[in-house]
């Protein structure tokens, strides 16, 4: 009877009754769902000693956060989005994963990346790193850092504000998806080849799923190993007629005057590539008017 009265008193006072969460397992560093007094879902963090902390609910009794993401339909509370501001590990949707590993690699609130089978998640870099055993007598210590590549979800006219403007659009897209890293657009001007702008790193993978796109810089000057159709958010382009601004031909070199007047005009033409192709057409498939909306290839440096 005394225990029952205590529980009733806690409910009256608005104290949330904790549960084990959606998965019933306390994993240090992870968060899990818990029950608020209103019946809505809150969030509780698992501490380093393997015990759940307090159930956090917002002022309306709704969930302040949840492992599953999304808004709390029953309580009306909004989910706290995982971001660099509140997560030192990587963001799996709205869940901050601090115990990062091969299945969820990242740091500083960037989106979690699934490492490929030939890579491991670097503890200090927060990136998937492939061990090559020091092959070729290189000075990399036997470790090659994997990089990522995506095609933007958004489209833009050919008036990009020059090459710098194209690079900036890649940076904005990557930042919006919490990817972190340094990015450049696969784009040439009348005086600069796209391939000469790229860092001699690699291999490059999709942002999710671990699909290898290019082995190295030399491969980048040829054709992709798989279609470059995944966006910064991890979604796939599905319309086969979509194209990408490149101004770049075979070998990663400029196509002279077909670059929207160095990417500052919407009244000229430019060479575009097809993200669905694994031939030279990936970078040079046709020429279109610069006022049209096209995607950009963004490559991590």
What characteristics describe this protein?
5 helices; Mannose-Binding Protein A, Chain A; eight-stranded mixed β-sheet; 301 residues; 13% helix; 16 strands; alpha+beta; elongated; three-stranded mixed β-sheet; disordered N terminus
Q: So what's the overall shape?
A: elongated
| N-end to C-end Cα span | 66 Å
Helix content: 10-25%
Mean pLDDT: 78
Order of helices and strands: HEEEEEEEEEHEHEEHEHEEE
Structural class: alpha+beta
Which regions have little confidence, pLDDT < 50, spanning 5+ residues?
A: 1-25, 59-77, 132-142
Q: How many beta-strand elements?
A: 16
Short summary of the structure?
This protein has helices at about 1-10, 160-175, 195, 215-220, 260-265, and strands spanning about 30-35, 40-45, 90, 95, 110, 120, 130, 145, 145-150, 185, 205, 210-215, 245, 270-275, 285-290, 295-300.
What do these coordinates show?
Among the domains are: 90-145, no CATH class; 148-300, Roll (Mannose-Binding Protein A, Chain A). It contains five helices and 16 strands. The protein has helices at 2-12, 162-176, 194-197, 217-220, 260-263, and strands spanning 31-35, 41-45, 90-92, 95-97, 110-111, 119-121, 128-131, 143-145, 147-151, 183-185, 204-205, 212-214, 244-245, 269-273, 286-289, 295-300. By secondary structure, the chain is an alpha+beta fold. A hairpin with a 2-residue loop joins strand 3 (90-92) and strand 4 (95-97). Residues 1-25, 59-77 and 132-142 have low confidence and may be disordered.
